[in-house]
């Protein structure tokens, strides 16, 4: 049977699909990562994660969510903050490292990145979810976030709002558009159109905002903060053609203000180092 015939049959099956009363995981669903996806949580194998000598231990991968943390750590290093020194280890999600016992003990959700802070007295502090890690580190060191005081209340609110905008919006880009455009077993028109439309709407939100803003929260160099970092890791890299090979499809060149902002941040020394960060193997 030809590939065209296979695709036609698959599309017909999708069009005729009726959800059962009770979902069961009874067949391979195809697509990248399908071999490791399961509807259950918890560890799958014994694992001993390495622990280096730096105060902060990062377990991650250079995906957009991982790059967020890389950037902030490198920006802190750029400022000469020795207390923010870190060791970075590679969690290969294609091989299931995220389901090892030590990693699950840090992040029960089995997603990268995860970080452990050994600098505090007493028990080490675990952190998971990229947004939580960025906010924790920014407040811990008092950098790249407006602090909680009377004079910075409005700036802090603006930073928090855009920071949370990324956390709420990006699942439509990554898990929605990215999955169906790049990772699904075959192209499907409805989900690709649905999530492409939403991704372009989000880019337009940014483009309108950045028309009058040098950075997400202002026009001065001191206004560069974790809102820029967390949004750039996804949308900045997207418009620079680094995600999903989708630049032409999404016409990213048309978002001129996002382009200007993305290119400016990409030239920061810390961002360059973060995007190319070498992660140590687990063994």
Secondary structure elements and pairings:
Blueprint: H1 3-15, E1 56-60, H2 64-78, E2 86-90, H3 101-106, E3 114-117, E4 125-128, H4 130-141, H5 153-183, H6 189-210, H7 226-239, H8 247-250, H9 256-266, H10 269-275
Parallel strand pairs: 1-2
Antiparallel strand pairs: 1-3, 3-4
Explain what the structure shows:
The chain has 283 residues and is an alpha+beta fold. The protein has a domain at 151-269: Up-down Bundle (Glutathione S-transferase Yfyf (Class Pi), Chain A, domain 2). Helices cover 48% and strands 6% of the residues. Mean pLDDT is 93; it is low at 1-13.
* Level-2 CATH architecture of the domain at 151-269: Up-down Bundle
* Net shape: globular
Please state the CA-atom Rg, rounded to the nearest Å.
21 Å
Largest sheet: 4 strands, mixed
Overall pLDDT, averaged?
93
CATH domain class name of the domain at 151-269: Mainly Alpha
Question: What quaternary form is this?
Answer: single chain
Number of strands: 4
């Amino acid at each position: 049977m030809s590939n065209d015939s296979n695709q036609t049959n698959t599309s017909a099956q999708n069009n005729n699909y009726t959800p059962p009363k009770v979902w069961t995981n009874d067949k391979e669903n195809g697509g990248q990562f399908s071999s490791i996806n399961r509807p259950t949580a918890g560890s799958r194998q014994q694992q001993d994660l390495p622990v280096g000598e730096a105060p902060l231990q990062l377990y991650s991968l250079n995906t957009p969510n991982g790059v967020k943390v890389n950037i902030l750590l490198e920006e802190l290093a750029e400022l000469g903050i020795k207390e923010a020194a870190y060791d970075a280890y590679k969690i290969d999600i294609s091989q299931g490292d995220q389901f090892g016992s030590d990693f699950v003990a840090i992040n029960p959700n089995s997603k990268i990145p995860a970080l452990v802070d050994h600098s505090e007295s007493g028990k080490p502090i675990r952190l998971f979810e990229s947004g939580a890690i960025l906010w924790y580190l920014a407040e811990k060191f008092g950098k790249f976030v407006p602090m909680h005081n009377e004079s910075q209340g409005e700036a802090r609110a603006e930073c928090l709002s855009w920071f949370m905008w990324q956390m709420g919006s990006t699942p439509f880009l990554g898990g929605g558009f990215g999955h169906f455009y790049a990772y699904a077993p075959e192209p499907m028109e409805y989900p690709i159109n649905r999530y492409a439309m939403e991704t372009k709407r989000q880019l337009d939100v940014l483009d309108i905002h950045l028309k009058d803003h040098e950075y997400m929260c202002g026009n001065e160099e001191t206004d560069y903060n974790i809102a820029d970092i967390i949004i750039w890791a996804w949308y900045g890299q997207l418009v620079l053609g680094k995600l999903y090979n989708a630049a032409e499809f999404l016409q990213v060149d048309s978002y001129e203000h996002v382009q200007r902002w993305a290119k400016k941040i990409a030239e920061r020394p810390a961002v360059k180092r973060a995007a190319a960060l070498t992660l140590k193997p687990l063994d």
